[in-house]
Amino acid sequence: MYYKKLLFAVMALTFGAISAQQRIPEVEALLQKMTLEEKIGQLNLLTPGGGVATGEVVSKNVEAKIKAGEVGGLFGVAGPDKVRVAQELAVKKSRLGIPLLIGSDVIHGYKTTYPIPLGLASSWDMDLVQQAAQMAAKEATADGINWNFSPMVDIARDPRWGRIAEGAGEDPYLGSRIAEASIKGYQGDDLAAAHTMLACVKHFALYGAAEAGRDYHSVDMSKIKMFNQYLPPYKAAVDAGVASVMSSFNDVDGIPATGNKWLLTDLLRDKWGFNGFVVSDYTSLNEMIPHGLGDLQAVSALALNAGLDMDMVGEGFLTTLKKSLEEGKVTEEAITNACRRILEAKYISGLFEDPYRYLDSKRPAKDILTKENRALARTLAAHSFVLLKNENNILPLQKNKKIALVGPLADSRNNMLGTWAPTGDVSLAVTILEGFKNVAPNATIQYAKGANISDDEEFAKHVNVFGPRIEIDERSPEVMVDEAVELAKNADVVVAVVGEATEMTGEAASRTDISIPESQKILIRALVATGKPVALVLMSGRPLTIPDELGLPVAILQVWHPGVEAGNAIADVVFGDYNPSGKLTVTWPRNVGQIPIYYSAKNTGRPAPENDEFQKFRSNYLDSPNSPLLPFGYGLSYTNFEYSNLKLDKASIGQGESISATVTVTNTGNYDGEEVVQLYLRDVVRSITPPKRELKGFRKILLKKGESKEVTITLSPDDLKFYNSQLDFVAEPGEFVVFVGTNSDAQLSKSFVLN
Ligand code: BGC
């Protein structure tokens, strides 16, 4: 037993590196016994919707197909008892008894929902990111899940795209660190352990670069941009040993990712050495038909030959591969290879040793939604908030004041979890009203809705597909605003919870206007006009264009969609029990016309003046500055941090050498606080145009009030490298400038030379 465990642990650690020479004998023996149909069956991933025992919603005849050996995995079925029904069908009723993979979208927590990924990323705290994923894995596996369709690591530089909420933001360096931490959290170091699950990095590749921010839209990008800006987080995931990869809906260089051999084989397997399995996105194989690549048989053969192993829901593989084999359009070897990769994943998960490994009926009560998990969700949420503005130090509030708590999101349980929380339970979410009462029982809190999230009924219909998110009140907008203003006038301070409903971001939730809806803007202006101090708690799944609100004399705390502990965590920060420490991981534009806008843009041959002044025949706009509303890496604290005395340990280095930057950071304010010290690098001269600066290191530190610390960040030889015109990863000799500071506008700088 011990030996087996050890073997699994070693296998899990080296999963990314199973080579032809290291084949798993059990898998090879099984392959020998399998018919062609059974091999093709393993490539089929279905979703039974209502559960195999009670009927089918999406995939048809699931039970019969499992018995016939025509299913490799299921998703959308959960709970040890329900999963057992399916697993027993596979193990006891199919000829070879091969267990099923059981997948799920555990995107930001299983039942204990924590902040949306864009929020969690804003913590810049890799320990917390890992702990979050660990908790999600423990809960999901307790419910019978052994495979997670996460992390999504798509770089996104267009906040119109609704799925920006699901990723880590715009930066390849930070995105890579978050990919690694998530995979460590989900997979642990023993994939066969009962509390770890296979991760699936998605959506490979470039899904976040959809044209015009419209979901599922085309992507067309140079290889230079791909390799330097968009591919690093996927590669980091592969290097971290991710067990599976999901192909994306979009095309890459004119070929949809799901049928793109350059992407799925030449790059992923041959160049990066990935040896896990590749699954399509939901019917993305079939979608190659409307993409314009042929009929179902043609696109299925294309996908298999490209290196796709598993077909999600579309059943193109199941229904056409045999014919394609007979017609010589695919080989049996290709089918066997795909099948092998799926069987290897099952083996490494420990499913062959014990198909019921994740099906302990006692675990859900023990492991899901525990006190500890909810406490962690509360911590994660508080760490994800970003203080955007704090006029007159309105925040934190004292706990004994008279507070007018207003806004359409202040008491809106349905909007706390955020997008892509299908396993969460909205009824368990803590509203802000409840959180305030929990944390500040001696405050006088009066609530008014004040406005609808939007007054637009048609828009509300589009948003409300998964249930009521935008609920349009029977009262007129004027009556609602008046009621809120009355409360405000009689209060010491106003807290207005405003922004986006959860489904205003997420899949197929792109917007062309990313401002706060007009109904809420009117409310905000009316509240400020009372002259009372106003704190805005801003909820959204994306950067919003808020130049008007940022210009008001208010405090603004950006809270994303915080998850099941929303209200408690917001109260913790608003009342000063936790000093906000989050930093934006994506640039906030002034207006949609600036998009795409990101800090690592290139200088151009005609850079605009640094001071944002318009100059004719320079790269700028007639009607807007170039600078963003809020830069990448930005976030305030209740205290202040000062940076001084930046030093490099060397003036010049040779190829292959490291260099360290040290800076003194001092907490000069009145609160203890955490700061994210950020290091950016400019490669002054290159054989291809360099970005103005790029994040290459960061450290999150705690400083007591009045305390100073020296912080050292070391640049490794790889941190100086980039992909050149030949796509070689090189560092070129010459001058480099290091910038260190509190956000991507960091001004302290020192130069060194690479010889
Ligand atoms: C999404 C994926 C998800 C899959 C399965 C698709 O629509 O793009 O991110 O994993 O559905 O639910």
UniProtKB/TrEMBL annotation:
Gene Ontology MF term list: beta-glucosidase activity
Signal peptide span: 1-20
Any one Gene Ontology BP term: glucan catabolic process
E.C. number: 3.2.1.21
Entries under InterPro entries matching the protein: Cellulose_Degrad_GH3, Fn3-like, GH, Glyco_hydro_3_AS, Glyco_hydro_3_C, Glyco_hydro_3_C_sf, Glyco_hydro_3_N, Glyco_hydro_3_N_sf
Catalysis performed (reactions): Hydrolysis of terminal, non-reducing beta-D-glucosyl residues with release of beta-D-glucose
Top-tier EC class: hydrolase
Entry's Gene Ontology cellular component terms: periplasmic space
SMART domains referenced in this protein's UniProt entry, alphabetically: Fn3_like (SM01217)
Subcellular location: Periplasm
Sorted UniProt keywords: Glycosidase, Hydrolase, Periplasm, Signal
Superkingdom, natural source: Bacteria
Main localisation: periplasm
Pfam family, one: Glyco_hydro_3
Entry similarity comment: Belongs to the glycosyl hydrolase 3 family.
Record's protein name: Periplasmic beta-glucosidase
